[in-house]
Specification:
Strand order of the largest sheet: 1-2-3-4-5-6-7-12
Helix content: 25-40%
Distance between the termini: 16 Å
Number of helices: 11
Order of helices and strands: EHEHHEHEHEHEHHEEHEEEHEH
Mean pLDDT: 95
Structural class: alpha/beta
Amino acid sequence: MKLGVYNAILHNLPLEQALDAVADLGLDGVELNTGGFLPPVHVPVDEILENPGAAARFREAFSSRGLEILGLNCNGNPLHPNPRIGPAQAEDIRRSIRVAAALGQQRVVTMSGLPGTDAGASRPGWNVNAWSSGALDSLDYQWDLACDFWTEIDTLAREHGVKVALEMHPQNLVFNPPTLKRLVDRIGATNIGAEMDPSHLFWQGMDPVKCVRWLGPLVFHAAAKDIRINSDCEIYGVLDERFRRLTDTEERTGLGGDEYVNEWPSDSSWDFVALGAGHNAHYWADFLRALHDVDPDMSVNIEHEDTSMGALEGLRFAKDTLFEAAAEAGIRASVRS
């Protein structure tokens, strides 16, 4: 099993400095962003696609530090009805699959996406609780679009020897194990499965360990990401919509087109926290055991979004938890220190 980090938290550093930081932490490698919501800061996507020699030079930056590339990531909404967003993020998935093949990689992480509610919609619509017949009509429309797109992507991934791992993320058609399996079954997918990010499963009330065992070989890849449920959840619940719209004079993160991330509630129902700040190493040992039973060679990459800690501080905290869990799980004879 490989233990690494998703590089988005290190996008403020040049590639070489980011890799030095990962090597200093004793991790095995890096999952690299190649588009979608975020730009491919560390990966020269065009150069790698146009020049076979560029891939070898890029890999050398990792191997010279004893690191590996542990997958590519292009999370986005490839089914967004806005023509400035959906098509571009869909193309990022296609390009990421080709880049993965050029780099000798077999995993691309992304999201299933979410279409509009109907053919005339300009924004995505997430039908969470389909108690009305209209919601089911909308879901039928959305699933038909999704199946057409993911059939194409499954074929492309198979041609390039790549497995596409979908993060089961809210505000996507695939947001839990049953919807992941529904997509795979409906299109007869051979190269589409799950990226097991436990954070979004936790706050939806699922048990990630049971989810791993339920999906079994459909789990291709994993994130090491934690959350903490706060006391305010007893009042606001997990479907809390108290986000603040940021003005164009404030620093904000774009999501494609004219969309951007809103400000998180200060008294939130739940928060992303560094691995170990929400669930202890004993829990993560069970999580790693379940993943190891599915695939002993699986990559598990820290995704750090704890705003109470700096980037390197949070990565160190998470790394210590992950290594302690790996030792308890008995899945590694030794861990790098």
